[in-house]
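User: quick one
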Amino acid sequence: MQHFRHYILLFLILPLMAFAEDGSQLWLRYPVNPKPRNIVNSNSKSPTIEISKKELNQHWAGQAIDLKIDRFPENFKDGYKIVSTPKKISVLAKTDLGLLYGSYHLLNLQQQKASFSNLKLEEKPSYDVRILNHWDNLDGTIERGYAGHSLWKWEDLPNKISPRYEEYARANASIGINATVLNNVNASPNMLREDYLKKVKVLADIFRPYGIKVYLSVNFSSPKVLGNTKDSDPLNKEVQKWWKDKAAEIYKLIPDFGGFLVKANSEGQPGPQDYGRTHADGANMMADVLKPYGGIVMWRAFVYSPSKEDRAKQAHLEFVPLDGKFRDNVIIQIKNGPIDFQPREAFNPLFGALRKTSEMVEFQITQEYLGQANHLVYLAPLFKETLDSDTFSDGKGSTIAKITDGTLRPAKLTDISAVANIGEDKNWTGHHFAQANWYAFGRLAWNHDLTSEKIADEWIKMTFTDDKNFVNQVKEMMLTSRETAVDYMMPLGLHHIFAGGHHYGPEPWGDYKGGRPDWSPVYYHQANAEGIGFDRTKTGSDAVSQYFTTLNETYNNIKTTPENLILWFHHVPWDYRMKDGKTLWDELCYKYDSGVQGVRAYQKAWESVKPYVDAERFSEVQDKLKIQAEDAVWWKDACLLYFQTFSKRPIPSDIEKPV
Ligand code: GCU
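Assistant: Done. Structure below.
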């Protein structure tokens, strides 16, 4: 009897013990079987299959499972099929990794309390490479990282291994992420030193069974810095040999190494143009040395320099003339917007403009311009807005998703990336809700047709609870949060009016005359006595002409430009009548105010769900919402009081007075 009681107690306590409430479990809060169940069979054997078995035997409470390698067409990739009867479940895939993904799918369904007695589903990834970009430095700091220091303990490696390396791999595999760039795009040449490569090898070995390939950001001057070559000119034979030898050295250590990510001739980074060569010359030199091993080069299109030319036009001007000149293992990595991860941007006109060169999207999960780790901003709607944007490149329906996933452009390899928000904080991402952005990127990289709502729904149920009272309120908060942030920071297409350097608070008055005018907020909002906004029409910077017909005409005309981008494309008079009949000035005031009201409503909503959430996460989110509410007021007051010095119009009386 005594024993029996202990057993019951253990049964009750064990699952609870597994769920640390500090957020460290992420969405992987699977119930723990008191005894591993041994109900999983497989016709394949590998470390990846071992992981699937372990996960299911420990966490799966349902019927017996068969993990089966089967025949599928080439393009099925790491997809899987799940078929079930009340007694048995079969997971079928072409690869072991497909079986692991299928296993996580089952655990995900179990978390959502779905029924598995009659399943029939098939999944395959939208993109081949689903990659996180870490902007982690070798000294342990993270550029634009807000969740503490880097997870990678370079000084301890290769000898001391943090348990978090495997936890990281597991979390990524559970949502289908299969690749990672370990270091900052502003890359230290030292990353390619022999001692560092040995450390990288250790991480690659840990990640491999979870299906995650390692890639590195490389510094274009590496040959000169590390190899003492005369220069790093891509046409210099000695330089080419250095890269060739380096590739051989890397692949000897890491046979499935993914390839290089390169930021060249941008924001002070070295590149081929230092030697009068083109981006294609630089990218191709690297592509050639990686090709024999199946490696790729992700070459960033984020290039601009201080010049008279509108910054939003520069990537297009630079890369379109090079279309067709890149090797087939080069992919041009393009930020979603043409400026820099702003709360809202028009999409980057380079999408669709390269017809003979592969293109991929770069998103930013880390919230550099979206309140960092303090603001609750769910990013799936932003990611979807880009992916679903119609470029018209091949007629109506040429969405960015279809251009980059191989539907409209034949591609050897498709790829999608995002700058990670992961650090060594216990909860991984600084804000509990920022975990949802990591999750959302993974889910959309796997299936870009998923809706923001579906992803939020899954994530909430897995991470918190499936209680309707909680799910509905919190989902509403998440789904509106991006628009709310746009409203209190940069409504109606305003952009880049952040305080210089840290990009956290407002500084619309910033005018860095002595430094980089293209980093000055005043350059972007152009407010004056007449109105506000950046004129990118044909009579302005003519950025509109970089868009395909008929979008170029839509954006060129103030009447047809969507109002949420009106100040992105037009310099608009203060008394311009908006569609709702308000003047532009009043509209701006009400937008800022509605952002503030939005956050206050989140505070109330969060208070109301208190009974459904553990005390630790409740109070941590509550505190962050306090900061967010205060910041929203700060943004509204700073921007309205500053813009009022130009508009000379009163702030409507029903709006909270600036203090
Ligand atoms: C932004 C960011 C930089 C980063 C750069 C990039 O400008 O502020 O820190 O290096 O983007 O994407 O290369």
